[in-house]
Write a structure and sequence with these properties.
This protein has helices at 2-7, 32-63, 67-93, 105-119, 124-155, 160-189; strands at 21-23, 28-30. A two-stranded antiparallel sheet has the order 1-2. Strand 1 and strand 2 (28-30) form a beta hairpin. The longest helix is centred in the N-terminal third of the chain and has 32 residues, at 32-63. It has six helices and two strands. It is elongated, with a radius of gyration of 18 Å. The protein has one domain (33-189): Ferritin, CATH 1.20.1260.
């Protein structure tokens, strides 16, 4: 229950109710306006996490000892910057602003990853494996969040928005697969 509250973004319930999506906890339907707000809120979580990840990736790149891991992290940084451009475009199309003040969950994982790397400073294998582990977790969280956003985008008939969300999910999926390949090679070599 505590973990769920970390990922939750605050939104106000809408008074008008239409046939949309059921809110099982309150036994009511969420109208289009409420789903729009949920979409913006959850998109904001992904945006905040990407912003934080972009800030932390250069330190992880510098810490990585395995050359292929460094290359994977550099690719992830480039992709994250592209994803940020897509997310900014998406917020612009929605005429909305990212709400980053309550986005603690993914940022906490990114900070934990950074802390683990600092903890293993000087121990290349442990540090690299920690980076690989956390990048896998981060990428899969982004994939899951993106898929949920896609469900809402399709339900809300956002059209072009769905394509932008799908692009970010595809990049995260490719990066998760890349980190798995790097991990497999690194484990075989050591």
């Amino acid at each position: 229950m505590v973990l769920l509250s970390i990922f939750r973004c605050h939104w106000m319930p809408v008074k008008s109710v239409s046939l949309a999506t059921m809110d099982p906890q309150n036994n009511r339907f969420l109208g289009k306006s409420a789903l729009d707000d949920v979409f913006i809120c959850q998109l904001s979580l992904v945006y905040a996490a990407k912003m934080h990840l972009i800030d932390r990736l250069p330190a992880l790149i510098a810490q990585a000892a395995f050359p292929k891991l460094r290359l994977a992290l550099e690719e992830d940084l480039e992709d994250s910057q592209k994803q940020m451009a897509s997310l900014r475009e998406l917020f612009g199309l929605l005429n909305a602003t990212a709400r980053t003040e309550h986005c603690l969950g993914m940022n906490a994982i990114i900070e934990e990853a950074h802390g683990q790397v600092l903890f293993f400073d000087g121990k290349n294998y442990e540090s690299d494996m920690s980076i690989i582990f956390y990048m896998g977790v981060i990428e899969h969280m982004q994939i899951g969040a993106g898929r949920m956003l896609n469900l809402i985008a399709r339900r809300q008939e956002y059209g072009a928005y769905t394509h932008l969300v799908e692009q970010t999910v595809d990049m995260s999926t490719d990066n998760a697969n890349l980190f798995n390949l790097v991990a497999a090679e690194y484990v075989r070599k050591n």
